[in-house]
Design a protein that fits this description.
There is one protein chain. Strand 8 and strand 9 form a beta hairpin. Helix 1 crosses helix 8. The chain has 2 domains: 141 residues, Rossmann fold (3-Layer(aba) Sandwich); 162 residues, L-2-Hydroxyisocaproate Dehydrogenase, Chain A, domain 2 (Alpha-Beta Complex). By secondary structure, the protein is α/β, with parallel strands linked by helices. It has a 9-stranded mixed beta sheet with strand order 3-2-1-4-5-6-12-13-14. The site of oxaloacetate ion (OAA) has 13 residues, from helix 7. The site of 1,4-dihydronicotinamide adenine dinucleotide has 35 residues, from helix 1 and helix 3. Belongs to the LDH/MDH superfamily. This is Malate dehydrogenase. Keywords: NAD, Oxidoreductase, Tricarboxylic acid cycle.
Length: 310
C-alpha cells in the first residue's frame, strides 16, 4: 500500500517494534518517528531502514525533524509515555501519561486534524477517552489498541491448556484493558466445539486468570518495563486493516454512545476497521453474568476518568 504515511509518537519498545514491523512488511510509503530522544530516533531510523533493505521494502523510515512533518500522516500511533514496572498497575501511569498525551496532541492536532489516531499508552481506555476529549475528533478516528492483544493472549492460554493449534481457536476479550477485562469464555469455539464443554471450571478459571494477568506476568519477568512485541504487532495489524481497508474485526477501545447500554465511556468492544478507522461497532448480546462483568470493567475505566477530570 503506497502513498500512505504512518507517524509514531513515542519510539521506545513498542514504538520501535511497530516501526520495524511496518518497514519490514512494506506496509506504507513512509514511517515518521517522533520522540523526545532525538539522537535515538535518528539511530532507529537508520537501523530499521537497514533492516528492511533486504526485504525490498518500499517504506522509508524517517526521524521527525519538525512537527509539520506530521501534516500528511494518514495514521498517528501514540505509544509515548512511561511503562509500568513490577508491583505497579496500569492505572498508576495515569497522570504522567495523560500529561504526555496532552502535550503530544497539542503539537500534532493543529498540524494534522485529519489523521486516524491509534492510542497505545496506558491506562489505555482512559487515555483514549482523554484523547477524544482533547481532540474533539469523531470516535471513529480516535481509538485504542488492547483488546486485540488481550484476545491473542486468551487464545494462547487456551491453546496451552488444550495443547491444541491456536489457529483453530476463536476467542475474544472485551471490556477494559485492566484486571477487570472480560475474556468471553462461554463463546470460545475450539474447532467448532464449545470450550466450556471441553474443560472443567478449574481449568477455565486458570485460563481466565492467566489472560487477565498476561501483561503483568511479562512485567514481573522483564523487571524493566512491559511487553512490546505482541502489543506492537497487534497495532501493526490494526494499521494494516485501516490502510488496506480490510474491514476486519478487532476488539478495540472505542467511545460508546449508547451501545451496550453505555454512553460517554471508552472501552474494548469488537469493531470493524477499514479506511475510515472504525467502520462499525459490533454489539454482542451479553448474558446477565457477562453484563455484570462488563459493568465492573466500565467502573474501572470510569474511576480513572473521574480522577483525571478532578
Ligand atoms: N495498550 C496496550 O495494550 C499496551 C500499552 N503499553 C503502553 O505503551 C506505552 C509505551 O510502552 P513502551 O514502549 O514499552 O515504553 P518505553 O519507555 O520503551 O517507550 C516510551 C517512549 O516514549 C517516549 N516519550 C516520553 N515522553 C514523550 C513525549 N512527550 N513525546 C514523545 N515521546 C515521548 C520516551 O522517550 C520513550 O522512547 C506505555 O504507556 C505502556 O504502558 C504497552 C504495551 C501494551
Ligand atoms: O502490562 C502492561 O503494563 C503493558 C500492557 O498493557 C500489556 O502488556 O498488556
Amino acid at each position: 500500500m503506497l502513498n500512505k504515511k504512518i507517524g509514531i509518537v513515542g519510539v521506545g519498545n513498542v514504538g520501535s517494534s511497530l516501526a520495524y514491523s511496518i518497514a519490514t512488511n512494506s506496509l506504507c510509503d513512509e514511517v515518521l518517528l517522533k520522540d523526545i530522544r532525538d539522537d535515538f530516533i535518528q539511530a532507529l531510523s537508520l537501523d530499521i531502514t537497514q533492516a528492511s533493505i533486504n526485504t525490498n521494502s518500499k517504506t522509508k523510515v524517517k526521524a521527525c525533524i519538525k512537527n509539520e512533518d506530521f501534516n500528511s500522516c494518514d495514521i498517528v500511533v501514540i505509544t509515548a509515555g512511561i511503562a509500568r514496572k513490577p508491583n505497579m498497575s496500569r492505572e498508576d501511569l495515569l497522570f504522567t501519561n495523560a500529561k504526555i498525551m496532552n502535550s503530544i496532541l497539542d503539537d500534532i492536532l493543529p498540524i494534522n486534524p485529519n489523521a486516524i489516531f491509534i492510542i497505545v499508552s496506558n491506562p489505555l481506555d482512559a487515555m483514549v477517552y482523554s484523547a477524544l476529549q482533547k481532540s474533539k475528533l469523531s470516535r471513529n478516528r480516535v481509538f485504542g489498541m488492547a483488546g486485540a492483544l488481550d484476545s491473542a493472549r486468551f487464545k494462547y492460554y487456551i491453546s496451552q491448556k488444550l495443547n491444541f493449534d491456536y489457529t483453530k481457536i476463536d476467542a475474544i476479550v472485551i471490556g477494559s484493558h485492566s484486571n477487570s477485562m472480560l475474556p468471553l469464555i462461554k463463546r470460545v469455539k475450539v474447532d467448532d466445539k464449545n470450550l466450556v464443554d471441553i474443560l472443567n471450571q478449574k481449568e477455565l478459571d486458570e485460563i481466565l486468570e492467566n489472560t487477565k494477568n498476561g501483561g503483568a506476568k511479562i512485567v514481573e519477568l522483564l523487571k524493566t518495563g512491559s511487553a512490546y512485541f505482541a502489543p506492537a504487532f497487534n497495532t501493526y495489524l490494526m494499521c494494516k486493516a485501516i490502510l488496506n481497508d480490510e474491514k476486519e474485526i478487532f476488539s478495540c477501545s472505542v467511545k460508546l454512545e449508547g451501545e451496550y447500554g453505555y454512553k460517554d465511556i471508552s472501552i474494548g468492544v469488537p469493531v470493524i476497521l477499514g479506511k475510515n478507522g472504525i467502520d462499525k461497532i459490533l454489539e454482542l448480546t451479553l448474558d446477565n453474568e457477562e453484563k455484570d462483568l462488563f459493568e465492573k470493567s466500565i467502573q474501572t475505566v470510569k474511576s480513572s476518568i473521574n480522577i483525571l477530570n478532578k
